[in-house]
Amino acid sequence: MILLIIVLIGASMLSVALKRQSPARHQATLKHPTLKAPASAEDELRPANVLNRAGNWRYVLSQWRNRYARPKEPTLEQQLRLWIEQTLPTDDPVYTWLMVLSEKKFTEFSYLLADFCEDTGFELDWLLQQRLIEHPTLAHMLVQTVRGYADTCRMAMLAQSELDAFRALRALEQNPYSKTSQALAQQLFIQSANLGLTPPVPTTVIVACKHERQIYMIQAIRQVAEKQPDAFHQILLTVVAKRYNE
Fold first, then answer.
1. Cα 53 from Cα 39, distance rounded (Å)
2. pLDDT tens digits along 156-168
3. Which residues, at least 6 apart from 134, have a Cβ–Cβ distance to it below 8 Å?
4. Alpha-carbon gap, residue 6 to 14, rounded angstroms
C-alpha cells in the first residue's frame, strides 16, 4: 500500500515538471527559428528559397550562363574539316576534292567515314581528338586508312560524274528537242558562249521562231564538241554536276 502511494506521488511530480518545461521550450523555439523542423523537399525547391540560398543575383546569373549559354561543341564535320586541313598535304588530290565538296556532300561523307571506321574496328574520334599521340605507328596507319577510303569515294564520285555526263549527252543526241534535252542544250550553249567557243548569234536567228533557234543551238553545240572536245567535256561535266546538285 505504501509502495503504491509512492508511485502515485512520483507520477504526479513528473507531470508537473513536464508542464513547466513546455512553455520554456516553446519560447526557445520562438527565439531560435533554427530549432524548427526542416522544410520539405518541395519547399526547398521553391524559387524564393533557391534565391535565398543563392545569396545574390550574380550567382543566379552565373548558373543560367552555365546551363543555357554554354558554347556548343564542334560538329563532326567541323572537326573532320579541321583535321583534314592539319593532316593532309594541300597538293594531295584527296585534300582538294574534300575541300571543294558542298556542305551537304561533306556532311554525308563525314558520317559515312565514321561508319566505315567503326566497321573497320576503330573510332574516327581517335584521330580527330589526337588520342593516338603515344602510338605514332598506329596513328599513321589509321590516317592512311582514312585517306584511302576518301580516295575511293573520290574516284567513285568522279566515275559517277562521268556516267551522268555520258547518259545526259546520249539522251541529248537521241532526242535533242525534248524538254529535258533542250534545258541541257541551253546550259551547254550558254557556257560555251561565255568561254568564246561559239560565234556570235546572228540577228536572223534571234528573231527566228523557237524551233529554228533550237536547231541553231544544237548545231552550235555539236560544232563545239567536234572542234573542242576537251573543253566541251569539261563544260558537260560542270553543267550535269550542277543539275544533279540542285
1. 13
2. 988 998 999 999 9
3. none
4. 12
